[in-house]
Design a protein that fits this description.
By secondary structure, this protein is mainly alpha-helical. The protein has one domain (2-279). The chain has helices spanning 2-15, 18-35, 37-45, 50-58, 64-74, 80-89, 94-100, 105-129, 137-143, 152-181, 183-191, 197-205, 210-221, 227-235, 241-248, 252-279. Helix 5 (64-74) packs parallel to helix 15 and helix 6 (80-89) crosses helix 16 (252-279). It is globular and about 60 Å long. It starts with a helix and ends with a helix.
């Protein structure tokens, strides 16, 4: 019964991201074969404000934008700062859980506001110190062994299928791992370190599964962890976004850097919030 629940949860998690992936891959195919360099020049020209746009898209309650942003980063369409801004602002299952538990808006909006502010600041700072990446959709298609003979819709569909199979397998593994550890054990792990709750929450939040955001949200609403801890944990929780990144970007050093900077940004944000709350 537990295995069936895990499989169903995995299918639900992955199915939600498929439409986003298809639209993004269709856009990338169009960018390579139809739009030419004019579109690339336009995207290059407006990159400075991308972390803000990425944050606003990421805050929409869906893990699909994080996965789509990973593919855009792999092709150089968006910067590292923009990708991390999307990761930090993504709320995954947080909003749906809060609404289902009838949490008042006064509880919801401060978390969303923190995610937006920290995502924009972190994205801007990271972009200021990151090396500029060129847009290269053609190289991405070559890595994916793209067959353009059937048109852009077919190519986009095949890209989506390849990533979906990868996501199903990896998400299943992580969901089985969470089920094996048990929600109660994760809950005790977080609650066992009240003085280090911000740090521990980020470790739980980094688990690429909807289960981690659900657990952190419930623990906050139940009063087990505080505001700083839940913000830190939800900031680093990018859902399936991180898994898509490891599938589409072959530069492992770059992926580890994105992973580390996301964690550091979430941890720093949580610690600052905790400091401010202690001073008030």
């Amino acid at each position: 019964m537990v295995l069936m629940d895990v499989v169903l949860d995995t299918l639900t998690d992955v199915l939600k991201i498929i439409p986003f992936l298809f639209v993004i891959y269709l856009f990338l195919e169009f960018l390579e074969h139809e739009a030419g360099h004019k579109m690339e020049h336009f995207l290059e020209k407006h990159r400075r404000m991308n972390p803000i746009f990425g944050t606003l898209l990421g805050i929409i309650p869906s893990c699909g934008f994080a996965g789509a942003a990973s593919s855009l980063f792999a092709t150089g369409v968006i910067s590292a700062g923009t990708l991390i801004a999307v990761y930090l602002s993504s709320s995954d299952e947080m909003l749906s859980i809060m609404l289902s538990m009838q949490a008042p808006f006064s509880v919801i909006w401060p978390i969303l506001a923190v995610k937006v502010v920290i995502a924009v600041i972190a994205g801007m700072i990271i972009d200021a110190f990151s090396k500029k990446r060129d847009i290269d959709v053609e190289e991405f298609c070559e890595r994916e062994h793209d067959d353009h003979s059937h048109g852009i819709f077919y190519s986009a569909m095949m890209h989506t299928l390849q990533v979906t199979i990868w996501l199903l397998l990896i998400t299943l593994v992580f969901n089985l791992l969470v089920a094996w550890i048990g929600e109660d054990n994760l809950r005790m792990f977080v609650a066992a370190y009240p003085n280090q709750s911000v740090l521990v929450s980020t470790l739980v939040g980094m688990i690429p599964s909807c289960a981690s955001s659900i657990l952190l949200t419930k623990m906050y609403l139940e009063g087990v962890i505080g505001f700083a801890a839940v913000c830190a944990g939800l900031l680093v929780n990018a859902g399936t976004g991180m898994m898509v990144l490891w599938r589409v970007n072959p530069n492992l050093k770059e992926n580890f850097k994105i992973l580390f900077l996301t964690w550091v940004s979430g941890l720093a944000g949580g610690l600052v919030i905790e400091l401010v709350m202690n001073l008030i």
